[in-house]
User: Fold these one by one.
Assistant:
Number 1:
Amino acid sequence: MRLETSNSSVELSLPANFANDIRVSTSNGGITLHMPYQVNAHVMARTTNSSISSDFEITMRGEFSKNHMEGVIGTGGPLIDLTTSNGSIRLLKNVGAGHARPARSGHARSYCPAPPESAPSAGPQTARARSRSCG
């Protein structure tokens, strides 16, 4: 599936059994992707003037920063490719079936890597987003 738009945000919910690649591109808007709690996917996310946040634990691959992330959720699976120029990217867990969304106040999980000099230079890395400011 491919979604492209300009001057608008995109909000998309994926079903539990999605198996096809997802590509979303927008300018001047954010991307919010709701996914099942137990999801397997390969994720690539890029934003120019904002940040990336995730409710999921992601095993990072290659270089990553506040504005760029590539990695695997679960055991990997279909590609989820998200790109925006002037908006944030949010990967959220679906609410339902006995699962409650974590409180956002004081517990928001923003993707914000450690400064480059303290980040390991090789091999996969697991990042669990934490609430802190990226500057």
Note: The first strand starts at residue 2 and ends at 6.
Number 2:
Amino acid sequence: MRRLVRTLVETIRADAWWEHKLAPMLGSGYMTAFLLGASLRDVWPALALTLGALTAAAAYVSLINDLTDIDDDRVAGKQNRLARRSRGVRAGALAGCLAIGAGATVAWRDDLLAVGLYAGAWVAFSLYSIPPVRLKARGILGVVADAAGAHVFPQLLVVVAVFHRHGTPLDAGWIAAVAAWAAANGVRGAVWHQLADVDVDARAGIRTFGRIHPRRAHWLARASFAIELALFAVLLWRSHNALAFALLVPYFALEALRSKLWGVKLVIAGRAPVFRIAMHEYYIVLYPLSFLIAASIRHPFDAPVLVAHVVLFHRTLVEMTRHAGRAARELVSARRSASRRAVAAPRGRSRSSAPPTHSGRTSAGRRGTAQRSASRPPATGTR
């Protein structure tokens, strides 16, 4: 059974999208419920249906993208997980996704707006990947299709689902702000992915926007990031959740410590030898948690939703906690070493007028350990 599950996860590349795409999407659902004053206990059926439906859509995206990339990946020398799978496995996985997607559509049969948004995600990525349209190889259109399918339609779907479940008329201003923020975030993510794959796409002859116009792509990513941050601040301000703002402090503190201690670079788009994508972990972990915690304080019976979310999306949370603990230990160790050196320095001067040295075995060993630790930064997160 475990082998079957592992094979399924590898086939649909769940590790590439489960937390990275679905946790922020749920965060927008929690934020909308908090805005409306709704209990998560009341809207959880809508959230659960949306999560299941978008899981099938995300799996379909991975499958169809890998299927249409098999020949290009072979030319580029890039690993393709579906290349070694049989046709039966490929067909079965696609059929499973389509069946779940059809079931979700039936569940939303009385909600045409939800059906339209859900279908939009499927259509966007079908146009992105499948020839002869294959927008992936058509410059800026590929960026637009990627952003729409991976961010705009899913984010709007969960927001609309919460409004409809709560029985509240749609707030056009709120929906527009969510759509614009998701679009900016999606454009940055699409550009990041294309810039990261420039060499592979060049070998395969794929004309992505990032490959054809790398300087424009970097500019577009920076402009999108500025818009994304501004709109996200508006959303948090309208939600009146101070905790969401407060958690930005420990997030940026952790990023600063990673940079100082391990040389991890925070990037907007593109890559570095050791890097993190700006705001990526905040969106995955702290964004949904801030609204889950606030909702549980307001409605104590919402706490089970918080627990369920942590169980489902714990991987990045555990990684952040581990990195914070390691950084704290290294800072404490560095301060203790500095204190010992400060105490030892006057003793050295009292014995001799020569400058103090640190050639003892214990001191050297301690410095060597610290240097080795700093030279092995934690594994970086990828999108």
Note: The first helix runs from residue 2 to 12.
Number 3:
Amino acid sequence: MKIRNGFVSNSSSSSFLILSKEKIENYKQLLEIFKINIESPLYEMNKNLVQTIYNITEEQDIDYIIENYCSYDESANDKYPTKEEFRNNMKLVYNDYNYFSIEELEKIKNGELFLREGSASDDSGNGYETLLYDLSKKTQKSLASVMNLTFNKWKKVINLL
């Protein structure tokens, strides 16, 4: 039996999720998603940041979500659904893990959407990972929001050059 209520927080890391319509198999696909211009004077820095994002994330599937974020009970005591009941009913997954809509969960299950999960830490020894972590902590925003803000700000800087 595995029961999880909420998330375990760690003051030195910030978790994030990337949901995409295409399977992300290498960092170059993320460069395209973030629309990083090779002509930019900040290209190498952006490329290294995107490589870090790719390297600190792993592709996950619906079974991973159920296993790690849903409260289930295989002893069939009816207090919690079983893993199979979760797998057959995305509404149960949504009730336990509501970061995605029921439709998005169905698409993850059916291979129509792809999920990567990652975490940035301030003590990894990787400066780009620390930068992502520090930005999320200083702005009190999710790491996903920080990544979007960061790339948008860099685009504005590039336009000024």
Note: The two ends are 57 Å apart (CA to CA).
Number 4:
Amino acid sequence: MVYEKCTITLSADKPIRRIPEQLKTKSNMENFVKRFVTSDEKIRVSIYQDDCAENPRYTTDEPIYFEDYCRDYSLMSREDRRDRSYDSLEERANSLLAYYGDGKKVVDLLIENGKHLTDGKSTCNNALVYNKSDKVWELLEYTKWYGEKEYKWRTADDFVTKREELDGYLDRIAETILADTLEYLFNANVVDDIRIATYNFGYNGEVSFDEGLDLSGDGLCWIVKKEYLKYTGLKEDRWNEEKVSENWVVKEIEKWSENEVYGFEVEKRIDYNVTKVCTSEEKETENYTETNWETIDSCWGFYGEGDEVLNDMLDCAGYTLDELTEVDE
């Protein structure tokens, strides 16, 4: 039996650095998206899905808050969920109203609502009216009890106090009002010191945000006026234009939950000559060229989809689409 003995000699412009397969934690063919090459085919840019992307809420110090009560998914850490002080979305919203609400604005609105109990012009299902005979302020709610056919205004709480002191009972009012009144106060911007959005989780954990308070949602996200304006440097007259659902952190969280996060690698082609010298009589010396691609640049954590995020990545890599040609895998 004749064993073939071969000597292989490599030559290239520079040493070849091979990346072990076990170190390629981000760029692998399972998350490969597309690839481009330069006109001389000496540089290629590969786009991958970033499976290691972090939740954007933990990579920013922007003052934006999240709290949810979904059994299967959460944007909160385990510690935050364990330590939260409230058992439901409604309880959390009640606390936000009590802490950030303007007592005078809320009381004025409920008193105004009390003037329209019978004319159909009430804006929500709670009202404040003064009972002259008992000399108390009554917090009314418009409800229908089990077995009743019609809704009725009935007393939910009363306050033995003067009108000018009623504003100080906001925390008690917040605990008592109905859910639809709570939603109205936030969505009509009566609670002006915060902006709030509601988020929901999809079947696979993807999350979507909608502006305003919806107590049927899975979680709340909010920003506080004083903190937010100080952090962003925005002027106060811009506050009314701010929408939590349009915040960049929120938008990136939506993309992160949908796996719309990408990265790129730039590789340089290195051609080297191979000389294969065989000692067996049947074989002759072989000369051929092999190609290796060396990673010279990479960047990860691009949130988005379509041409916009692609252009952002290529710009970061130092190229434009006009300079590259898309090639097959």
Note: The mean pLDDT is 86.
